[in-house]
Design brief:
heterodimer; A: about 400 residues; Peroxisomal Thiolase, Chain A, domain 1; 2 domains; 6-stranded mixed sheet; 16 strands; globular; B: about 425 residues; 3-stranded mixed sheet; 13 helices; about 20% strand; 3-oxoacyl-[acyl-carrier-protein] synthase activity (chain B); Ketoacyl_synth_AS (chain B)
Chain lengths: ~400, ~425
């Protein structure tokens, strides 16, 4: 059961502000302001601009954390506060997060200290502030969570893998796992790496930079942020009368055949596995939160996979991430949070800015949010660079 | 579902030993592979020693293109993966590929390439706003360590779940533990899993210098890694990797596979204490050990050998000794415990897998590697750490444990497969 959400997104801090932004199409994408470049390091970004770290964290933690950890600590605190749970013992509660690329801004700064000034100038916090495991460690310490811990990495797919692993640990006896992912790599070196992926949009128009499933699709806009969720044992949540958003009902993951094999993507298999795991048919899924790479061949592959599972244009598909940019490992958990809110409020948020390619066999929800009746479950899809496919089914609260 | 998991193939790249056989010979001989850093000028650093691999990627079987393109960690992963797959004889066909997954452990990913690319893009640290024109086309692959898992998946032909597990210095155990969970629950029938890291580079050496975690026995590099010794003063940075092939036990037996050991139990816990510090009582590592034994339905007295984390930092060896006493009780005083980091150093996210490999080999061959350099035991640490010389001993059940920055504590129980 998911009992608490913590959201840090480019278009809203906290569940209320974010959900309001999504329903009203408030865009979190704007000109890249984190540093002044000449455009070769990207022009647009989904920056979290209204987060004041001092408001959320003690000074001691500010010095030792990258933005991705500052956001994650805030999100975890909000999720736990909302869940209002206290485990019977610290050993019964754990933390499982994902990361795509670690605390990169912190890493760049310390690389600069090392190479411009020398080894004595490298921060004592560098040994952990940029490594991929940092968010799990810091959340565990801050909330005294000493149960199962873990960190998974699969670029954008990893966030769903983390939530699935959290469910695995809860099924295995843990009372509570704080899980999800938050990423941020908008420093110059991080942007340089992302530019090299060949998948960034060159656009400088905030409403036309990230257009998945659109004929104009030409890469994505990178963003920062994500979501942290509390995943709890259902019985325990019921016993204490917790407010429940819904549950992680099914999960599947697959890896694509090697490039050049001529064989299709394995995404459909991940979706089918997730549906079977949830004990649901395609017809039970009220809405799909798509990966939406905004790379034409990847969009076509996703559309084909969804059409093969659900039938062409048989299920509403949306990608609210066009308002945030791609958040890497943070995207999956944020989409899961959004899906739970959509099921709660019986509404599908729209895919902003996009004019869907009519040749794709998808019913993309655009314009205004679409109302949902009797919606039971939603599917979230996330793909990681290199061939990683993950799919997760959520059910709403009964 | 009560599916059991066995190790059917092992591949190793270790300091002093490329390949499983030379690795095991090195460990039993008690020879150390630590030395003065040779790959860059370490003069400005506090700790100038490391356990380096004498590794030529092309001689080890990679193409020139792979050698150019891949970070050293990726090279280790492919070479160890190739050996493990060949050793196991597991055939992965197009129609079974979705039942096979990959889980690679790494603490710091492609850190060497990230550093060398940074130096190129920033003109030696001169510019904050770096010049992307100078970057290699593979920079994004180094940026996302998941590329390491993708390479292993392509090598193996695996199309099931593919992941990196990156839990700092327990990544090596945790990647194998995660893989076991996927087989146990029935998601897959086989996994190619294990950890790699290639951290011997200026930025990593500087990181550990800054917190004085590494040894500065610079004048005596060969004996610098001294777990459980009175004169221990930190770990010696290492590199390498171990990949294992894990299979559902019945299927492995059916196809007549060689079986090194069964993995019967695994658990991880966080200490929620400090990103780099350890509580002296070892309570969370003890909880992980107890949970791993419980999962395997074994008692402390069943444990014939403990492969320790044994980094040779002051706090680790104390913490771990407390954890053994807390979890194993009186049996902690009887069971042989050793640290192979005395010989191969501490390769961060790789070493846990090298230790799983060593523990599986101990089960297979009935021998226990020693703790090298243990001439002068710390009187506060009063267990049997198998000083200097290997022992012959039937090992039916063996524990291997790990502890890492971020508070990660992990334990795994390996056993001889009862048939």
């Amino acid at each position: 059961m998911v009992t608490g959400l913590g959201i840090v997104a480019p278009n809203g801090l906290g569940v209320g502000a974010y959900w309001d932004a999504v329903l009203n199409g408030r865009n979190g994408i704007g000109p890249l302001r984190r540093f002044t470049g000449d455009g070769r390091l990207g022009r647009l970004a989904g920056e979290v601009s209204d987060f004041v770290p001092e408001d959320h964290l003690p000074k001691r933690l500010l010095a030792q954390t990258d933005p991705m950890t500052q956001y994650a600590l805030a999100a975890a605190e909000w999720a736990l506060r909302e869940a209002g749970c206290s485990p019977s013992s610290p050993l019964e509660a754990g933390v499982i997060t994902a990361s795509a690329s670690g605390g990169f801004a912190f890493g760049q700064r310390e690389l600069q200290n090392l190479w411009s000034k020398g080894p004595a100038h490298v921060s004592a916090y560098m040994s952990f502030a940029w490594f991929y495991a940092v968010n799990t460690g810091q959340i565990a310490i801050r909330h005294d969570l000493r149960g199962p811990v873990g960190v998974v990495v699969a670029e954008q797919a990893g966030g769903l893998d983390a939530l699935a692993h959290a469910r695995r640990k809860v099924r295995g006896g843990a009372e509570l796992i704080v899980s999800g992912a938050v990423d941020s790599s908008l420093c110059p070196y991080g942007m340089a790496a992302q530019v090299k992926s060949g998948r960034l949009s060159g656009s400088d128009n905030p409403t036309a930079g990230y257009l998945p499933f659109d004929r104009r699709a030409a890469g994505h806009v990178p963003g920062e942020g994500g979501a942290i969720l509390t995943v709890e044992d259902a019985e325990r949540a019921a016993e204490r009368g917790a407010k429940v958003y819904g549950s992680i009902a099914g999960y599947g993951a697959s890896f694509d055949p090697p490039p050049g094999s001529g064989r299709p993507s394995a995404l459909a298999r991940a979706v089918e596995t997730a549906l079977a795991d949830a004990g649901l048919d395609g017809s039970d899924i009220a809405v799909v939160f798509a990966d939406g790479a905004a790379v034409p061949e990847l969009d076509a592959a996703e559309a084909e996979a969804l059409a093969s599972v659900f039938g062409p244009r048989r299920v509403p598909v949306t990608a609210p991430k066009t308002l945030t940019g791609r958040l890497y490992s943070g995207a999956g958990p944020l989409d899961v949070a959004t899906a739970l809110l959509a099921l709660r409020d019986e509404v599908v948020p729209a895919t902003a800015h996009v004019d869907p390619d009519p040749d794709l066999p998808l019913d993309v929800v655009t314009g205004r949010p679409r109302s949902l009746a009797d919606a039971r479950a939603a599917l979230v899809v996330a793909r990681g660079y290199g061939g990683f496919n993950s799919a997760l089914v959520v059910r709403g609260a009964e | 579902m009560n599916r059991r998991i066995v190790i059917t193939g092992i591949g190793v790249v270790a300091p002093g030993a490329i390949g499983t056989k030379p690795f095991w010979e090195l460990l039993l001989s008690g020879t150390t592979a630590t030395r003065a850093i040779s790959t860059f000028d370490a003069t400005p650093f506090r700790s100038r020693i490391a356990a380096e691999c004498d590794f030529d990627p092309v001689a080890a079987g990679l193409s020139a293109e792979q050698a150019r393109r891949l970070d050293r960690a990726g090279q280790f992963a492919l070479v160890a993966g190739q050996e493990a797959l060949a050793d196991s004889g597991l055939r992965i066909e197009e129609d079974s590929a979705h039942r096979v997954g990959v889980c690679v452990g790494t603490a710091v990913g492609c850190t060497q390439k990230l550093e060398s690319e940074y130096v190129a893009l920033s003109a030696g640290g001169a510019h904050w706003v770096v010049d992307p024109g100078r970057g290699s086309p593979e920079l994004y692959d180094y940026f996302v360590p998941s590329s390491l898992a993708a390479e292993v998946a392509w090598l193996a032909g695996a199309e099931g779940p593919v992941n990196i597990v990156s839990a700092g210095c327990t990544s090596g155990i945790d990647s194998i533990g995660y893989a076991c969970e996927l087989i146990r629950e029935g998601t897959v029938d086989a996994m190619v899993a294990g950890g790699v890291d290639a951290p011997i580079a200026p930025i990593t050496v500087a990181c550990f210098d800054a917190i004085r975690a590494t040894s500065d026995h610079n004048d005596t590099p060969e004996t610098a890694s001294r777990p459980f010794s009175r004169s221990r003063n930190g770990f010696v940075l290492g590199e390498g990797g171990a990949i294992v092939v894990l299979e559902e036990a019945e299927a492995a037996v059916r196809r007549g596979a060689r079986i090194y050991a069964e993995i019967g139990g695994y658990a991880s816990r966080g200490n929620a204490y400090h990103m780099t510090g350890l509580r002296a009582d070892g309570a969370e590592m003890a909880a992980a050990i107890t949970a791993a034994l419980d999962e395997a339905r074994r008692d402390p007295s069943d444990v014939d050998y403990v492969n320790a984390h044994g980094t040779a930092t002051k706090q680790n060896d104390r913490h771990e000794t407390s954890a053994f006493k807390r979890s194993l009780g009186e049996h902690a005083y009887r069971v042989p415990i050793s640290s192979i980091k005395s010989m191969i150093g501490h390769s961060l996210g790789a070493v846990g897998s090298l230790e799983v490999a060593a523990t599986a080999l101990a089960v297979e061959y009935g021998a226990i590697p020693p703790t090298a350099n243990l001439h002068d035991p710390d009187p506060e640490l009063d267990l049997d750490y198998v000083p200097l010389t290997a022992r012959e001993k039937q090992v039916r059940h063996a524990l291997t444990v790990g502890s890492g920055f971020g508070g990660f504590q992990s334990a795994m129980l390996l056993s001889r497969l009862e048939r």
